Amino acid sequence: MLQKNHRFLFYSENLALGSQLSAALDGLGLLTQECPTDEALPVRFTEMQPQMAFLDFMPHNDDKQLKRSVHQATMLARLFPHIPRVAIGKLSEPGTAIAALRAGVTDFIDPDQKHDFLDAVHRMLLAAGTTSGTPSCQGSILLLGARVGVGTSTLAVHLAGLMQNRLTLAANPGNHGKSITKTSVRPEGIPLSERACLLDLGMPVADCLLYLNMRSDFHFMDAVQNLRRLDNTLLSSALPHNQAGISALALPRTLEQMRDASLADSLALFERLRDYFGLLITDAGGLSNPQFIAGLAQTATHTWVVTDQSVGALVSLADLLDELDEQQFDRSGIRLVVNRYDPRYGMNAAQIADRFKLTLQGTLPDHTLALRNSMNIGKLLIDGKGRDPYVKALQALTHGLLPGPIAPAQSSHWLSEKFAAVRRHTAARRDQRQGQQT
Q1: How far apart (Å, rounded) are the C-alpha atoms in residues 347 and 344?
Q2: Which of 84, 134, 143, 160 has its CA 20 to 30 A from that of 399?
Q3: Residue 395 and residue 359: Cα distance in Å, rounded?
């Protein structure tokens, strides 16, 4: 039995065919029909996160539509290989079917064969439900820095450490109350679904890796170039992890290498990491690519913008928000974090939030000496004893981010629940028959 709230996308200008598909899928979920440009297709795909995509391979008077559909299928197969891609066409046109399958579609279906069509959709949804990355993923947190130097990377590494602790304790309730460094779980034995992944896109390059005392030769561009090969095994072996189990991926030291990374591929990598890891934390402090930042913010579960109370940081914050406005991004979901906060410095946090029409997530105290001392020896404040003011403020900042303990093996929890219900019903019937016989 399938869920009834699936999201389907159909790329075509054929409204009549769209209506036919929508009627056939009635009861399974919502079909959205769009006709985006090739450049916008992966961005919209990332935003909507459908469970299945349909592509128009119906016979046409010219080859233009066929070429476009082939291009779309090839692009989706490269960027989103884990999402079923279904070609809609006529079985009486074998040439079209061959072109679609060569372009990397998952299946070719004739919509006139309604029974076969629904059987195929059911089969692919069930397969996708059992092979997708990590449905137990707790989401993603995007950190935007008003400017370089406001403490975004410091927040990112401490946030990753704190959330990794929570993920591990949630998966190992017997260790509740212990520090992550005292758990019996070996770092290399922690599955990706119980790991926090820190995507280090901030400036200066790879500062988060330095703060976590980690080194890696595998960087963001390597991941983009191996997008189709990224799976649990490759991510587990290629990405470095620390003793707590945090994985990390940073930009290449030579930023010229990033020139070959397209916006679509970069956003697809972000989405792929979300599929596999329990939590994805992205440090984009100082990153100067408004279109990419807007794409990340559109997809992230939580977006925090970090500033301090200095005039320079507040001016840079205004510029950052203006750039997002130019990308037509709705800033209502952005939360404000004021770092190095002291009400004696000038505008208080509530005034800053009101000035920029942002919701205040919280504040972090001015704690430079302790932070610098700890990170200079490759440690985080959360590793120390006692209740440090910065850690206490961070805990308040992150209250409620993880809704509850995760279940590592819930790739088809709704199907498991259905099977469990069937088993209970069968057992009850058996007990009833045995009672009648006695």
Answers
A1: 8
A2: 134
A3: 18
Question: What angle, 0 to 180 degrees and rounded to 10, lies between the N-to-C axes of helices 41-48 and 64-79?
Answer: 50
* Neighbour count for residue 396 (Cβ, 10 Å): 12
Specify the pTM: 0.68
Distances (CA, A) of 316 to 76, 357, 393: 37, 15, 24
Who's near 275: CB < 8 A, 6+ residues apart? 82, 132, 133, 134, 137
Burial of 181 (0-12, 13-18, 19+ CB in 10 A): exposed
**In the prediction, which pLDDT does 268 show?**
84
Q: What is the CA radius of gyration of the chain?
A: 25
Nearest to 72 by CA among 152, 134, 11, 162: 11
By DSSP bridging, strand 29-34 and strand 6-11 are: parallel
Compute, in degrees rounded to 10, the torsion defined by CA atoms 252, 255, 260, 265.
60
One-letter amino acid identity for 169?
L
Query: What strands, in cross-sheet order, belong to the sheet with 6-11?
Result: 29-34, 6-11, 52-56, 85-88, 107-109
pLDDT, position 353: 96
3-class DSSP assignment, residue 392: helix
SS3 304: strand
Helix H or strand E segment including 334: strand 334-341
* Range in 158-162, 282-286, 302-306, 325-329 with the lowest mean pLDDT: 325-329
387 or 349: which leads in pLDDT: 349
